[in-house]
Amino acid sequence: MAKLIEGTDYKVIDNFLDKNYFNDLVNFASNPELATKLLQWIYCPTIAYREEQNSLDCYFCSIIFGNYGDSSIKSDHYSLFKPFWNILNIRSLIRIKTNLYPRTENLIEHEKHIDYSFKHNGAILSLNTCDGYTILEDGTRIESIANRMLFFDPSKYHGSTNCTNDKARFNINFNYF
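^ thats the sequence. predicted structure below, dont judge the formating
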């Protein structure tokens, strides 16, 4: 059963997706046997466009659709994400990106950033439960809980964290109109 949490500038829905579809997405992104074959993980040595590189401040991403002005399919597995057009009521898709934040000994709160400078819709689907979170412009922390969807305006400053109590923090980031 879905549970709704609302703030001034955001909305959180727990148990967002049907269990079977959610499990398919989790397997796609985090099952070691599948993910290495299906996703093209890109090593990103910095987070939130930082020029300074801290060896612990890194992540991996895989672009499924679009990326900064290029609106095209980037993954052979884009069809797995097609249901989101209806689920999120997408009129125009900007980007779908999967994120993998590796575990470290200490929780690292990454620098806040904006995804794009124009107003649009954003959603982050947490694929696993861990002690990581998304922090919004006003300081609100949205915990990473499996099958939790955060809706917010990603043209406002927000940030991410890694985790300390699981192998990695996994999520899917959607930018759309």
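The chain has a mean pLDDT of 88.
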